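Hi L., both proteins are below.
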Amino acid sequence: MALQDLLDLSTSRKKIGISEERINAVMPVIRKYTAFWREYPDLFVDFLVRGTRTE
């Protein structure tokens, strides 16, 4: 079996990992979230707690 045949068996082409370019692309959003959480730390705690609950 050729290498290309083995690669074609994979249905997922999702990128995994972090590169500097990918981080720089979302940096404006990261800055907005950071500013929001600094302004409302109580909402940040609620956000974290909500993620751990099983309802």
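That was the first. Here is the second:
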Amino acid sequence: MQEIDYLKWILNSDFLQEGDRALTMVEPSDLLHDEQRVDIKNDTRSILDMKLYCFNTPDKNVNKLFPFFNQRRDEPTAPEGLNSFCDYILLVQHINGLFVFFLEMKRGVTSGAEKQIDASCTFFDFILKSAERIKEENDFPEFDVRQIKYRKLIIKEDRCNKRITKDKDVENLDLSVVNTHACYKEFRPIPYCR
């Protein structure tokens, strides 16, 4: 078993994207912006598998994601930021281990995106601690949470080729912090898998 299979076994499959949209991220249209659609591409043998979990669609109810948190809209309402979460979590099984991408799509201003990503990282820390706690009784004793790497990205819509993030731009990034990845229709995770 690989790490990606073990986490798929743990995570709620209602959020897993499957079928023809298994690796497509969508930011729905609003009053100011058209729909943004970004396909995740794998053009290397170094990536063995990918799973995309979606948390930004209306049918993905926040009550289902955080059933133990206050969901009230009247007094006392939920504390500010309690139910924040990023749009997508992408699991990438690379030959060098598992990478967890926290992806927040933005077309305009990116304010608040870092807080959403940080909240998602806190949630995933709990998932990994749970995976570590139950690994022996689930026949995966070699699971090692220390081998899993986080990548935190704001996927910023950019239609101009001069500003789109290139592989060489990623080489000098501090991958322990939230970075902005400018793209239009495609995202390739491989440069972040180091």
